[in-house]
Amino acid sequence: MTSDELRAWRAAERERLISARERLDPATLEHLRQRIDAHLERAFPRLAAAKIAFCWPMRGEYDTRPLAHALRERGAVTALPVVVATGQPLVFREWHPGVALSSGPLGIPYPASSDPVVPTVVLVPLNGWDEAGHRLGYGGGFFDRTLAGPSKRPIAIGVGYEIGRMPTIRPQAWDMPMDWVVTERGVYRRDPGGLVFLRDATPGPPGAPTSPVCYADEIGPGFFGDPKA
Hints:
This protein has helices at residues 3-22, 26-43, 65-73, 142-148, and strands spanning 51-53, 77-82, 91-94, 101-103, 109-111, 121-125, 128-130, 135-136, 155-159, 165-166, 180-182, 187-191, 194-197. The protein is an alpha/beta fold.
């Protein structure tokens, strides 16, 4: 596949998956959000001590804002990405209600003048995701450049829906895989052989797990803001 053919194929797949997501009704999106929130809170309790970058939702994406609000109340710092320029990594600025927002590319809000944040965790939205943990985004490459840059990169947790799952995005050398993928089904960890599913969806309402689960310790100390690191 040539580079032009790859771009065309990814563009078609992107629009197919976004269209499928946008056809979900508001009640279904809210149900999926609650399930993803529950999996994230059960699996990664140290998020409450982290510096978390998340994205303002668009086009039916998983809405991280309620989870970010809950984590802030328990001590987390939350930040939104800022596009500096085409071809450059993202930077992150602190955001919470009361911080003024400006309109960025694609009309996505961003904090223009709040304090910069170096996140320890990034919750990355997924249009599509494959069995190796690679992400199909919007084609700008901003998250790939951002995750490839730091010597100690933040933990990348891709968040999206099962309908976005694909066998492969046909990854290239610049495509940075997620460390984890979380959907309404549960939690996937990226191992050398690809994604490994760690937990079935819990029957019943979110917040009532049949047994406790925590994968944060598998990441290693310090990544979620542990002061003992």
